[in-house]
Design a protein that fits this description.
Distance between the termini: 25 Å
Number of strands: 19
Number of domains: 2
CATH superfamily of the largest domain: FAD/NAD(P)-binding domain
Structural class: alpha/beta
Number of helices: 7
Shape: elongated
Order of helices and strands: EHEEEHEEEEEHEHEHEHEEEEEEEH
Helix content: 25-40%
CATH architecture of the largest domain: 3-Layer(bba) Sandwich
Low-confidence stretches: none
Length: 312
């Protein structure tokens, strides 16, 4: 079985940054990119809030830059997906979708969290063309425009409130006849004149020529009574939650009720010696490229310190 000093599961800003730091520390990191090489950022068109790119850069280009930088410092980057993990004892063992197995002295989990979608074909059709799962990332492009947010929880209310500071109008599309959000978030939404809440509405589809121009909605008016109509919008934001990609680690690592990996304080330590978590898989709050990159840096530094201590 192949033995690895520093194994990084997942790519994206956290995984690649961890690989850069681990490579510079001569840890010979091996990165398994997973199901979406480059992470969620590759589905974003323009990135304007990542330091060092004053003119902005596409998500794909940014991740390609980070990947090349990791390779420059000796990272071995592979495309397989981890399907099984055994963290019961060091060295830790992993199996991948091609049947290969490795064991590792240190592990950095950077598998991210996947945004939940409604399952509409139009969500894929207009990905990067008006459909987004991150208002903080993409809201800037909708200044003085009309947008819609789907969801009724705290995240949806927070996204709608944030977008209202930029857009001319925000529709909040809520499936139920009430908001699930905390009272303070409900108050902010319901008292904001730029936000119109559409209770008991579902989205059936989106339309537009070169991007999102509107949404097909269904309003439930009774058990057997529905009203269908369209609204004109420039952007469609999903805020119905994220699913952390942590399932294969749960037998050994503590997670919260949603599945986010719980780390020790502000560190990336998971409680399993030599196993660290970085990026969105351990971050239910910020989910930004820069915070993911920072946590990848911390995880690599912790991995180096752990290995050094083991060798003394």
């Amino acid at each position: 079985m192949e033995h690895i000093r520093c194994l990084i599961i997942g790519s994206g800003p956290a995984g690649y940054t961890a690989a850069i730091y681990a490579g510079r520390a001569n840890l010979a990191p091996v990165v398994y990119e997973g199901i979406q090489p480059g992470g969620q950022l590759t589905t974003t068109t323009e990135v304007e809030n990542f330091p060092g790119y004053p003119e902005g850069i596409t998500g794909s280009e940014l991740m390609e830059d980070l990947r090349k930088q990791a390779e420059r410092f000796g990272a071995d980057i592979r495309s397989n997906i981890a399907t099984q993990a055994d963290l019961s004892a060091s060295p830790y063992k992993f199996t991948f979708d091609d049947g290969s197995q490795v064991e590792a002295d240190t592990v950095i989990i950077a598998t991210g969290a996947s945004a939940k979608y409604l399952g509409l074909d139009d969500e894929k059709k207009y990905a990067g063309m008006g459909v987004s799962a991150c208002a903080t990332c993409d809201g800037f492009f909708y200044r003085k425009k009309v947008v819609a947010v789907v969801g009724g929880g705290d995240t949806a209310c927070e996204e709608a409130t944030y977008l209202a500071s930029l857009a001319s109008k925000v529709y909040l599309i809520v499936r139920k006849p009430y908001l699930r959000a905390s009272q303070i978030m409900q108050d902010r939404v319901l008292n904001n004149p730029k936000i119109e809440v559409l209770f008991e509405h579902n989205t059936e589809g989106l339309f537009g020529e070169d991007g999102v121009e509107g949404a097909h909605l269904v309003k439930r008016k009774g058990e057997a009574d529905e009203e269908r109509y369209d609204i004109a919008i420039d952007g469609f934001f999903l805020a119905i939650g994220h699913k952390p990609n942590s399932d294969i680690f749960k037998p050994w690592i503590k997670t919260d009720e949603v599945g986010y990996i719980v780390t020790e304080g502000s560190s990336p330590r998971t409680g399993v010696p030599g196993v660290f978590a970085a990026g969105d898989v351990a971050d239910p709050h910020y989910r930004q490229a820069i915070t993911a990159a920072a946590s990848g840096c911390k995880a690599a530094i912790e991995a180096e310190r752990y290995l050094t201590a083991q060798e003394i």
